[in-house]
Write a structure and sequence with these properties.
The chain is an alpha+beta fold. The protein is built from seven helices and eleven strands.
Length: 307
């Protein structure tokens, strides 16, 4: 693996952190970070967290494939690799010197490059860090970057960049951009699928992903964090749309999604997937969009493109 830039510390973690413990610690530290937010510096920790000896869990991977509608294969779905590596990114956000509160973060967008297949038998190395701290009209945004490599191989197999918003948190020294023009008008296309999501959807995804963020688990825990009801995980909706694209995407692709409005559970979500190909008719790209069946409000939009 290539060496980090000069001045960047690499912290070797003995094992992948527990998400449930990270959330508990985040709740405990929330008050302290809220007190500090007015004086906190707009500086990210100069550190990377690395975990070696990570291996997919075949049972969890199979449950993930069943829940999201992915074909059952020996190769891990891109969304499952995200769940496998996500705790490393969470551990960066849970650091004492991370300037934003972990709880209440809003997932704005995600970009994944799945370059080399990850099999359930593979031994992996995961590295995570934060970058791109910037002002946002509604608070402060930050990118969490995760790279997954096969053990002993310098080539990146999977790379994910998740962009989060700390709503209402404004750090000194960061510009606060205004709204650029009017919001794009959305006219729902003809749906190619209709998802019926129950109030259990958040807990079902948490069971296979390990992401036990309280805003997804129940209306009671979601209301405690300012939501009117529990909401679906953004990566659940993104991963389900990816599964809808089907096996034509192959094993090497770019997957991008932007989240625009939360999906409050229970819900009915309309989805449209549009495929495009090259001059010979071979698949090159799929664009997808999801919106509320009743409200017509767009929840997410994204694409999958051949690498």
């Amino acid at each position: 693996m290539s060496a980090p830039a000069r001045g960047i510390e690499t912290l070797e973690l003995a094992e992948m952190p527990s998400l449930s413990r990270l959330y508990v610690a985040a709740a405990r530290d929330a008050a302290r970070k809220l007190v500090k937010k007015g004086t906190a510096r707009g500086v990210l920790p100069a550190a990377r967290h690395r975990v070696a000896g990570v291996r997919p869990d075949l049972g969890k991977m199979t449950e993930y494939q069943s829940l999201l509608g992915e074909t059952k294969r020996d190769i891990a779905p891109a969304g499952y690799v995200h769940t496998l590596a996500f705790p490393a990114a969470m551990s960066v956000m849970g650091r004492e010197d991370f300037p934003l509160p972990l709880l209440g973060m809003v997932h704005l967008e995600n970009r994944v490059e799945y370059r080399l297949p990850v099999f359930y038998t593979d031994l992996l190395e995961v590295t995570a860090w934060a970058e791109g701290l910037a002002g946002h009209r509604a608070g402060t945004r930050v990118d969490l970057v995760v790279e997954v490599r096969h053990a002993g191989n310098d080539d990146v197999a999977w790379r994910g960049v998740s962009t989060y918003l700390a709503k209402g948190v404004y750090l000194p020294g960061l510009d606060r951009p205004g709204v650029n023009g009017a919001r794009e008008e959305f006219r729902p296309p003809l749906p190619t699928a209709l998802w019926r999501l129950s109030s259990e959807t958040g807990r079902e995804y948490a069971a296979v992903s390990g992401d036990v963020n309280p805003i997804h688990l129940s209306s009671i825990s979601a209301r405690a964090l300012g939501m009117r009801r529990s909401i679906a995980h953004g990566m659940y909706t993104a991963s389900r749309a990816l599964a809808e694209v089907g096996p034509q995407k192959g094993d090497a692709f770019v997957w991008e999604v932007k989240f625009e409005a939360p999906v409050f559970l229970p819900a009915r979500v309309c989805v449209n997937i549009t495929d495009s190909g090259d001059s010979e008719g071979a698949w090159e790209r799929s664009d997808f969009v999801g919106w509320g069946a009743s409200s017509g409000r767009r929840h997410f939009v994204g694409r999958v493109e051949r690498l």
